[in-house]
Amino acid sequence: MPLQPLLPAAALADNFAELKPPLRPQEAHVEASRCLYCFDAPCITACPTGIDIPAFIKKIAYGNPAGAAKTILIANILGASCARVCPTSVLCEGACVLEDRDEQPIMIGRLQRYATDYVTERKLSVLPKPAKKSGKKIAVIGAGPAGLGCAAELAQLGHSVTIFERQPQAGGLNTYGIAYYKMKPQVSLAEVELVKSLGVEIRCGVNVGKDVTIAQLEIDFSAIFVGIGLGAATRLHIPGEELPEVLDALDYIAKIHTDPLHKIPTGRRVAVIGAGNTAIDAVTQSKRLGADRSFIVYRRGEPEMSAYDFEYEHAKDDGAHFLFHAAPVEIIATAGHVSGLKLIRTRLVGGKAEIIPGTEWVEPCDLVLKAVGQEKQIKLVKSLFPTLAVDARGVITHDQLTGQTNVPHIFAGGDCGNGGREVVNAVGEGKKAAHGIHHFLTGKTATPPVQPSRLGAKQGSSGSGLLKPIRAHELEAALKL
Q1: DSSP codes, 466-481
Q2: Residue 31: how many CB atoms within 10 A of its CB?
């Protein structure tokens, strides 16, 4: 049968409530006061954008959330998104020294959200004014996290930047592809406005290669940053894949971001193929939309899942089921609509999943979501830039420190250059590329803004890496906005 919406608006509002509510001011103050304010803070090293985490936490502890937001946003223009969607338990919080003491790590992500929400809600402008205009113009292809991170950094360095985006709205997966209970698209769109406030022009609904040619961009701009991300979900190559109820998981999640929740059609029995973080998002979203049974199909076992452990636990808490060591063979149809998924048992041999003949069975379902990875956009890259080097993985070859490709005026970053990583990685790569472009155009090295979180501090003689106590007036001076 065709898919139908399953739950009323009121029930869906509860189901899609935020996973982690914002901290109240007192909670934020108490949590910030737990920080040890490490001198050689491992949490900074663990952050791909290099946010001075002890500095912004101390600013919260001293009642200066606007100053904390400034510290965050100078380093990561998408700090509000990253506060919600970053796998902090394996990045900054995973590096917290308190964990070595068998204590709960500082809730860095939630403190980061507290600070960025504070300035967003009050419409406070905390970023420094961009540098004097250089007269240089840069084109950015793709308004996802990498493109926005690159554009914001270039704008603050004094360059004129225009982003070209084929979607109706900017933000990339932050706007269209994040589980709704983690982050609403309004957060991403507010960050887009923040980037635009720096003087960046964003042209949405523009398909580069069709609406504007690369030849024209090379005439109008001195350099080009490519941040086009990845393409459609990888095909399953099994019978029945063309049925109307077989969807890309990211397309399914995008509907949740663009349509009213009570109007989104979904299945009562939903099969999700894949075991990465997108698969987890899809299976939990289908449960929250009202599915009676949602299950993940994975050809390997639980230890081989690429999804983070905390995502896996959350999906189980939401009532998702997992069919391990199973591979799809065929999508079954009844009257032209999905009615089941034929599976076969597998076993691991030398790390590879091999099928076990004669073990087929059919799981009833009326919706199949594909989450087995995304295709690399090799054809698009080669059609736009025929001479651009692409490696064996199908991603753009570029210098890891500067983003520069084999074509000197073209730079790359984000998923099209790393094969698909986290939002914060994309922002970090965009920043690196911006510094690479700045050097390419001016011959100068961009110097990151100084954040005086270590004012008056010296590493302790014990070698502990923690700050020696400093005078209160010195600390307050360091923490001013």
Answers
A1: BBPP--HHHHHHHT--
A2: 20
Domain with CATH 3.50.50.60 in the chain: 137-231+375-442, 246-370
pLDDT digits (tens, 9 = 90+) for 280-302: 999 999 999 999 999 999 999 99
Q: Is the pTM of this model over 0.85?
A: yes
- d(Cα 165, Cα 154) in Å, to the nearest integer? 17
Domain covering 13-127+450-478, topology: Fumarate Reductase Iron-sulfur Protein; Chain B, domain 2 (1.10.1060)
- Average pLDDT over the chain, rounded to whole? 91
Give the max Cα distance, the chain.
Answer: 77
Q: Which two tokens stand for residue 165?
A: 């985006």
Residue tagged 């002890």 (tokens): 54
Q: Kind of pairing, strands 201-204 and 321-324?
A: unpaired
DSSP-assigned beta bridge partners for residue 235: none
Is the domain 137-231+375-442 a CATH 3.50.50.60 member? yes
Q: Is-contact 105 91, C-beta < 8 A?
A: no
Partners of 330 in beta bridges = 342
Which residues make beta-bridge pairs with 321? Answer: 295
Name the burial class of residue 358, with classes exposed (0-12), middle (13-18) and buried (19+) by CB atoms within 10 angstroms of its CB: exposed
Burial class (CB in 10 A: 0-12, 13-18, 19+), 369: buried
What one-letter code names the amino acid at 277?
N
If one counts every other C-beta atom within 10 angstroms of the C-beta of residue 35, the result is: 22
The token pair at 299 is: 């050809």
Please tell me whether residue 353 adopts helix, strand or coil conformation: strand
Quickly list H helices, 47-197.
Answer: 53-61, 65-75, 79-85, 108-122, 145-156, 173-176, 185-197
Task: Note the pLDDT tens digit of each residue in 409-429.
Answer: 999 999 998 888 899 999 999
- What are the tokens at 181? 């209970």
Sequence-distant (6+) residues with CB within 8 A of 128 are 74, 156, 449
